[in-house]
Amino acid sequence: MVQHSPIDRTFAALADPTRRGILERLGTGSATISELAEPFGITLTGTKKHVQVLEDAELVSTAKVGRERRCSLGPRRLDDVEQWVAMYRRMLEERLDRFGELIERTKGVHP
Amino acid sequence: MVQHSPIDRTFAALADPTRRGILERLGTGSATISELAEPFGITLTGTKKHVQVLEDAELVSTAKVGRERRCSLGPRRLDDVEQWVAMYRRMLEERLDRFGELIERTKGVHP
């Protein structure tokens, strides 16, 4: 029914603490699947699955180097996620402003 | 295994275009389940499920008014999501800076 767009896949990929941890680790430099698996104490199969979700969301790119697969960040920049979150924040603030004005009018405040 | 924290639930809740649409609609004011269902062309049951996911993530609060359930935004502010995305952007930029420096050194550029 619903077509999943890049922003959907990105939000879904970021909804897991291990996947966010993998991205944070890759921020310090590229790593193999086994280097990623170790600090999180998860299996290679589990790590590969998380990396696949991140790769589908274009948050991670991988390349075969010899017998290993090296993972690095990118190419996605999260601009659309940032814009959506900023829009939501503005929306909340406007709602609070309107609520504040309503309270002021109800109180009939005079300086 | 993995405990789902508020930020996990929030990212997961935002990973669906209908749920983001519901939040955008609630930004203009509160609405009943049927008012929310109509513009998206989804069933009441489907709408209730989406609202439940948003409520679990504290992005929506609901209150029974007479025979209807009114939905409104809040109380969650997305501060943690915003911080995580900003951290990710800084990380990407630092990585690009390091990459740029490496290229400059490799080229042995002299002004």
Overall description:
The structure is a homodimer of 111-residue chains. In chain A, β2 (60-65) and β3 form a beta hairpin. Chain A has 111 residues and is of the alpha+beta class. Helix content of chain A is 62%, strand content 13%. The mean pLDDT of chain A is 89. Chain A is elongated. The A-B interface holds A 2, 5, 8-9, 11-12, 14-18, 20, 23-24, 27, 73-74, 77-78, 81-82, 84-86, 88-89, 91-92, 94-95 and B 2, 5, 8-12, 14-18, 20, 23-24, 27, 73-74, 77-78, 81-82, 84-86, 88-89, 91-92, 94-95.
Order of helices and strands of chain A: HHEHHEEH
Specify the biggest β-sheet of chain A: 3 strands, antiparallel
Evaluate the radius of gyration of chain A. Answer: 21 Å
* Oligomer designation: homodimer
In order across it, which strands form the biggest sheet of chain A? 1-3-2
What's the total number of strands of chain A? 3
| Estimated share of beta-strand residues of chain A | 5-15%
**Helix share of residues of chain A?**
55-70%
User: How would you classify the helix and strand content of chain A by structural class?
Assistant: alpha+beta
Largest interface: A-B, 30 and 31 residues
Terminal CA distance of chain A: 56 Å
Determine the mean pLDDT of chain A: 89
Question: Which word captures the global form of chain A?
Answer: elongated
How many H/I helical runs of chain A?
5
Question: Low-confidence segments of chain A, ≥5 residues, pLDDT <50?
Answer: none
